[in-house]
Amino acid sequence: MSIKTEQFNLFKIPHSRMKQLVTFCNQNLDTTDFANSDALILLLTNLGTVFHEFKSHEEIENEHIMIKLKKKLTKMAIYNPAVCNCHKDDEFSPLINLVEAGYMYLNKTKSISEKISFGVRLRKALSAFFKKFIPHMKEEEDVFQPLLCEHFTEEELHEMKNIVIKLHMQQRKRENIAKRRKCEPKMKTFVSENQKPNYISQLPDEILMKIFSLLSTRDKLKSAQVCRKWNELIYDPSNWSYLDFNKWKSKNKSYLKGNENAQFKEMDFIDESDEDDFDSSTQIDLNDVKTLQYWIRHLLPKIGVYVQKLNLSNCSSLNNNLARRILQLCPNLIELNIGYNSIGDNSFRGVRLDKLRNLNAEGCENLTDNAFKFLLLSNEKNDCTVNSRFKCDSIEKMEISEIESGEFNTCKKCIISKESRNNPSLVSINLSGCWSISDYGLSYLASKYELNNLEYLNLSGCVNLTSFGMNLFLEFSDFLKGENLYYCDNITDGPLRDSANGCENLECNKKYCCRSISRQYGC
After folding, report:
1. CB 50 within 8 A of CB 129
2. What is the pLDDT of residues 22-63, one digit of tens each?
3. Rounded to an integer, what distance in angstroms lies between the CA atom of residue 172 and that of residue 377?
């Protein structure tokens, strides 16, 4: 029966794969630097996988093609020496052993000349093997395939072909899995012998954290990507207790000089909402805005809860929108410095600063009473003891007369006293130059924070304050001494009038003073 040889060629598809592997091996041998341990590891791993696939190919051919052909010819009393001697010699095991022996050349005791000598030996062995292997595949296609077509039916050949291809595909998957099991353990054994001692990893965590604390924020973030241990140590709360925008700029100044757009590739834009919020006279530094946006998008979501001290002073590019988002991401602030900025009341809208003890807003001329009113409204939501579904009345709903008279200390609905709320206690307040702040602003601030532990208060240039409002504000501030109290010289009957300091802004051009000639305001 005549059958088309090409249609039922059992060797064509497997052999095409074997030829690809031969080409792959030759290319790897030509490009590998045997003096380089990393390149040698990669070559040995790849060759080990290839030779195991060669050997599996031979086993599949023997079991599902050649044994069946031998049986068919024996049954018909036909003797063919080529068929009987096919795959008689094991050509693959010596090569596999040679590759496995190559791992010993990764040992640090082996010299470069020995590694190169092994490379020469490996090239010769593979060259001799390929000179036999490629003609052998041609012999199978030219000699054995016609015999198969002559002595097997079309259905038998079709079934044999499907089985051979299926087994080859399955074997390739198994070889990829076995690659790590057979080659990598040996590789790890020899590589571990070559590795130099990692003294840094042996340092105590305390020493490493001290080292990390000396790095700039940018370098800390890069170091956090080295390994899991470094990541955990770098993101330890103690490393992020203090965040200073000005130090960030100074430590990254040289980097930004030559790479203006490199530091924030993923932040190479300015939000329209941020840009529109700037005053027309404000000088905008795009690098500053990008830095602040980087903080908001990437840095503070990870470490904001750990920040206890935040310095945003003298940042001309800081606006209400940026400031508000930064403060919202740092809910555990103890010390806040936003001095000499053009930010306004909306910077505090929706912000929680329940642990704040030191507030420095000197030189922020755009701040008014509403700044502390917004700060209060975002926090004062006490559960009503009468009905848990309701909240107590906040300072927003009370009259100013009630605030001044002290009635705001008692909730209208459920009689929760101010003392029972456990409000945070301020230690230091600096509102020097915030000329728009009045008695109402101090009342809003007093309704949010305890003042029993107040030790420093600077109200220089706050020309809208009265002696009555200040005395009421400091009624329970027993720890405040006159040497740490500053307010306008025109207030003659203010608190601690015998020992308090006057206005410190008389000769200061940066902060407002009612006696400054350059100002149009008066007391």
Report:
1. no
2. 888 888 888 888 888 778 888 888 888 888 888 888 888 888
3. 67
Rounded (5°) CA angle 148-150-151: 70
Asked if 83 contacts 70 with a C-beta cutoff of 8 angstroms, the reply is yes
Question: Distance between CA atoms of 134 and 142, rounded to whole angstroms?
Answer: 13
Q: What tokens does 246 get?
A: 């000005």
Distance CA 161, CA 154 (A): 11
CA dihedral 243, 249, 252, 253 (to 10 degrees): -160
- Give the residues across from 360 on adjacent strands: 337, 430
C-alpha to C-alpha distance for 387 and 156, rounded to whole angstroms: 86
Strand partners, 456: 428
Mean predicted lDDT score pLDDT of the chain: 76
Predicted confidence at residue 359, as pLDDT, reads: 93
DSSP label at 509?
Answer: S
Task: Name the DSSP class of 384.
Answer: P
| Residue 450 DSSP code | B
Cβ-proximal residues to 85 (8 Å cutoff; 6+ apart), any chain? none
On the 0-12 / 13-18 / 19+ scale of CB atoms within 10 A, 95 is buried
pLDDT of residue 336: 93
Stated pTM of the model = 0.53
Which positions ≥6 away from 248 have C-beta within 8 Å? 216, 217, 218, 291
Task: Let me know if 331 is exposed, middle or buried by CB neighbors in 10 A (0-12, 13-18, 19+).
Answer: middle
d(CA 511, CA 365): 8
Q: How far apart are the first and last CA of the chain?
A: 119
Letter for the amino acid at 2?
S
What's the rounded Cα separation, in Å, for the pair 246 and 354? 25
Distances (CA, A) of 486 to 206, 456, 510: 43, 9, 17
Q: Distance (Å, rounded) from C-alpha 480 to C-alpha 473? A: 12
User: Taking a C-beta distance cutoff of 8 angstroms, is the pair 368, 439 a contact?
Assistant: no
* Whole-angstrom distance, CA of residue 191 vs CA of residue 45: 13
